[in-house]
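In line with agreed milestones, the collection of sequences with tokenised folds has grown. A representative record is reproduced below.
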Amino acid sequence: MTRPRNDNFLRALLKEPTDYTPLWLMRQAGRYLPEYCETRKRAGSFLQLCKNPALACEVTLQPLSRYNLDAAILFSDILTVPDAMGLGLTFTEGEGPKFERPLREEWAIRDLSAPDPYDHLRYVMDGICEIRRALGNSVPLIGFAGSPYTLACYMIEGAASSDYRRVKTMIYTRPDLMHHILSVTADAVVGYLNAQIESGVQAVMIFDTWGGGLSAAAYREFSLHYMQRIVAGLLRQRDGERVPSIVFTKGGGCWLEAIADIGCDAVGIDWTLDIGEARRRVGHKVSLQGNLDPAVLCASSDIIAAETRRILDSYGPGNTGHVFNLGHGIAQWTPPEHVTALVETVHEYSRALRRKN
């Protein structure tokens, strides 16, 4: 496996010098793009879109056709793993994901097992192979999975929740059951991400969307511990090339140093933390990914440019260790042309900063 022609994203994750700050966007293939909405309509449903390798490839490539992005990310969903574990995932328009068989009974929790990713998630691996062929080694392909805690939130509640009452009740009244769910899910995520790596992804990311809602002690025990276990179990190389890993906890800025210590190559940060402060706190231990507030993309191009420059200035001098991204996923109401302003500003201004320094 040779590096892509544009390997700036990989170089930044590995703290190697880059000529400019590379950029990709969480949820960059999504409902803000009219072409995505058309493809999703043809697919019939979101889940059918995820499970059709050809259509998943199509939407993965759509943002790269519009924008000069430095990486593609596999089009899929974090909940495909618990779906493969037999919980019965459905997506209802306007209501989000739901599970037909959430984990409410002890017998169901004890019966939980990790799926074979080459069997129950074969469509994801087929999609990766198709995307890699279509990319032609132009830019890296990112694979991903949800953190065990974030997946458990959906698996126990059965859907998104405003307070995750069932989850937190289990943490404090039956921690043994919660640890069993998290342990099995961690095994499933390790197998799933390693299968993605074997199938051709060149970096992987763990999305811990709901870990930031835990107490400090609970975060370390029920979220961070299992992400560390996943990172330790990942394939670090494929065909002689390093496969870097990114860990992102939304709302996890207060645990930045602890996240940086689990062995990942990069830590994603949301918009609530100044990236310059984050850099000072982690030093050279990890690279950083982030961290524009997605709402900025609803403002004018001048404001987008100003906020983007502010983040690049805050990160400070040097040409290593920063991947520009949003602090969370791009919003569906984002005007597509505003993303153009963001991409152009990141590339042009970061190049100017390197010449200046």
About this structure: The chain has 15 helices and eleven strands. Residues 175-199 form the longest helix (25 residues).
